[in-house]
Amino acid sequence: MPKPFHILLLSAGSLLAQNILDNLENRRDKVRITGLNSSSANPRIYRCDKVYLSPLIDSPNFKTFLYETIKRERPNTILPGRDHDVVALAELAHENPDLRSLIPGGSIKAIKIMNDKRLSSLFSKEYDLPYAQSAIPQKENFSEVYNLVSLCGFPIIAKPSEGFGSLGIRILCNETQLETFLSRNPEGFIFQEFIGFSEESYNKIDTYNKDISMGVPLFFHLPDENQFAGQTIIKSDGSIGEIFTSRSLMVLGRCEKSELWIDPAFTELTRKYAEAIADKGWRGVFNLQCRRTQVGRFVGSEMSGRMTGSTSARGYLGYDEIRILIKEFYGIDIGKDSRYKRDNAGVVYRSLTDYYVSGKDKNLLDINSLWEKKKENIQEDNRTKKSPVRTVLITGSTGFIGQNFVKKLIKKENYEVIVISRNKTQAKKLFESDVSQYFSYEDILDGKYLIDNTSLLFHLGFARPHNGNYEIARSLELTAKLFSYTVQCGIQGIVNISSRSVYGNSDNPPWDEETPTNPSTIYGQAKLGAELLLSTLINSYSNTFGTSIRLGTVISGSSGLVDVSIISKLIKQALKSDPIHIFGGTQNFDFLHVDDATDAFISLLETPISSWKPTYTLGSTQSYNIVTIAERCVALSSQFLSNQTSQIIIEKGDSNVDYGLDSSLFQEDMNWHPKKSIDDIITSLINFYQIK
User: Fewest CB atoms less than 10 Å from the CB: which of 73, 303, 482, 511?
Assistant: First the structure.
């Protein structure tokens, strides 16, 4: 099998370069693309097979860098991504004759004519070609501009002589605007008649001028359908290849729609321009921008010696110019693209496309100035591997559950634990060197840790109900930022620790994943909000998996315990032999030992994340009546007392407290079952309070 045709693509992150990549998308087995770009932060450059971080094109060492890269990579051809690249390549070919065969371009003189609109105007006069009537102001002598206005009337256009992409263009509609513009610095601008300016466009500008007295509109643009383009390849011998003509809808300087436009007069005009620029020594791609007058006559307005923002659109309309260029200059056919079939009635609409780059890839390019795409299937996809996730970022590590989870996880092999905490100092005192890295939330959100598709976030950090509504609201706000940021970074998975509070006081426990949510507290509403946010993000970003664990009451006599549970209060009373007053006696509670909870978390980590369900309930397998719990607290505490024990007093009354979770789905998916009984929980708490 022949080697792929190797293209070195300059300014690989530009929109023009993206058009080239779009055009070649279905033929990447036939071509290999190495890109140069001055910024690593543009996700589009990573569509190339290899990327070099290059100096800026106007820096003194750019040409040396480019020459060395060419010698190292040995491309078959070099294509520009911007107008400045065309000039740089023409100069490089002139200075290095051994590289001329790699650059399908022409003379420096020709490219300067195309890139400078003032020179383009003079060029059109030299060859008697129709061109938008133009005025080139002399220093402090604007007579040509005034003559243009008297001849054409308003509006006229002021455009940078060396501009591109509609940048810097002004539409001058009256004397006041013209005088104001000229009073500033018109140097470097050319003034042209505005051909084909419609009444509708004029009305829009008039409305804008009236409305601006009430404030500047946030958005304003003039859709322009009077943009015509002729595209061709000037062959090595100077002859003109197939000519393709089209009309485009331009919005904010970008092509939004393209359609084939067949007009013999327009085709002939493109040919005459191509022959004239070929006479100046140009070879390769040639593009002519035209406008149509009210009487249907085509007039040139700009030229370029490169492909354009409509390159991929022209492919759909039947003109596969990259294939034509490569075949003409190198005798190699990269093959047809099944998408590209000429359809005279066809229309192409261009749409925005999202591109993503992982922090890891960006970091590699920043550090090494080189990034290369990994070959497919070298590494097994971590999302489907049975082995555990290696890097786990944990929030809430200084809390009761968090402390126990981190201490258990760091004892297991093949896990790198990274702690995210509001209080890094406290976290470091708890875990010391057992944890590899410590970060604050601000560190993470500022990008100080590179999150990528090998990381997993375990989010335990959230204010408890007793912290108050203000802290709960801040926790939800921080959760939203953290989830959104990590998902955008391409994190592999997120485990959100939610709460049984999302069920409120629903009837008929035990509750499971199908039970309707009905939070009755601010805390429960916040927890449900975090669940919904995660679900929305996971549905929007297909490369990230996630689940929310609706956790019951987790407790045991361990470090970090906060004494807010009913069972803690009962044990404290029993250890003092105080009377225990129970109101009603019908209440039922569900308690899960912290060892069982943290074992459940590890079972989750060791299960392929692609199999996770969106939500799980996690609690013990049994609920206990309040009277039974009190009796066990008294009985197990009695071993620490001499003679006297607490008396349980049940007072009449009604209570609707009835908690219970059905964890069968989690148990089945994770192959996990709780091992600790209610007696184990009570005994651990008694020992904790006795030592304390």
Answer: 73
